[in-house]
Amino acid sequence: MIRVMGITHDHQVRTDIALDDIHNHQNYLWSWVDFSSPTEEEAELLGSFFQFHPLAIEDCLLHVMQRPKIDFYDDNDFLVLHALDPDTLELVEVNLFIGESCLVSFHHRELQEIDVAWESIQKRALNRKMWERGPFTAAYLVIDNLVDQYFPCVYAVEDELDELEKLGGRESIEQLMNQVFDLRSRLLKLRRTIVPMRDLMYHILNSKHIQAQKEAGAYFSDIYDHLLKLSEMVESDREMTADLRDSYLSLNSNRMNGIMKTLTVITSVFMPLTLIAGIYGMNFINMPELHWRYGYFGVLGLMGVLSIWMILSFMRRGWFK
């Protein structure tokens, strides 16, 4: 699907115009063309109608996820951005061509962030100062909405992390460790999304193209600040999951030590008893104690006294603390 928006010289927003009309500079100050899940025929317009650079078109048509970047060409700037699926945290590539009088967005899936930016421009139709900045305004709204969508994903992980921290040791260590590693995996996906976008915004802010437009640079600086905050949140959450992982491992180790201590005490008490029972269970003929009238009770008494003595000895050494 291709949709076209034009901003007239009297700062009116029109969305019912034909694609061929966007080059009519007498009627339109600048325009925005959005390619959403385009067909092959529609995608060919990038070269045949807009005449973008072949390398940029190749980047758009490739279904291999690329790292966020910006390329500067003679007539336009080409950006590769990442949207984030809030349910699966999978990346969706968004491509932007920013020209002097036209913005072209290209993405293989319908995205709510693009729709929000599209509607936002229509709602701000009377803000003339904003529209005078040209396609950079729409580009800023798109990138800002893409970055804003990262926040709910990070907040969702933080909420689960807080719940996991409150559970303490009420669940099994195996379940807790599985949840911790699941959170670390999701945080890694977020990090792989946020950090490259942060680096891209830093590169844009320090490029000569943006420095020439100070007002546009201020808007992109705001996006960069959001990405810095997001990256700090992700790193903080990763450190917290590492601390939880270490705590659960220590807790599990302590539990295992307690179990081993209990088994050691039981084994230590019964080893001499087993030795005594084994000796008198051999049934040799020349064993004087076998013919003793009180031999059975004597051996039981010896076992009892020996057990009590060993238990008291272990208690004095602090084995039961």
Automatic annotation (TrEMBL):
Pfam families the UniProt entry points to: CorA (PF01544)
InterPro entries from the UniProt entry: CorA_cytoplasmic_dom, CorA_TM1_TM2, Mg/Co-transport_prot_CorA, MgTranspt_CorA/ZnTranspt_ZntB
Alphabetic keyword roster: Cell membrane, Ion transport, Magnesium, Membrane, Transmembrane, Transmembrane helix, Transport
Subcellular location: Cell membrane; Membrane
Stretches assigned to coiled coil: none
Topology versus the membrane: Multi-pass membrane protein
Signal listed as a keyword: no
Transmembrane helix as UniProt keyword: yes
Phylogenetic classification of the source organism: Bacteria, Bacillati, Bacillota, Bacilli, Bacillales
Biological function: Mediates influx of magnesium ions.
Family, per entry: Belongs to the CorA metal ion transporter (MIT) (TC 1.A.35) family.
Spans traversing the lipid bilayer: 263-282, 294-315
Name of the molecule in the record: Magnesium transport protein CorA
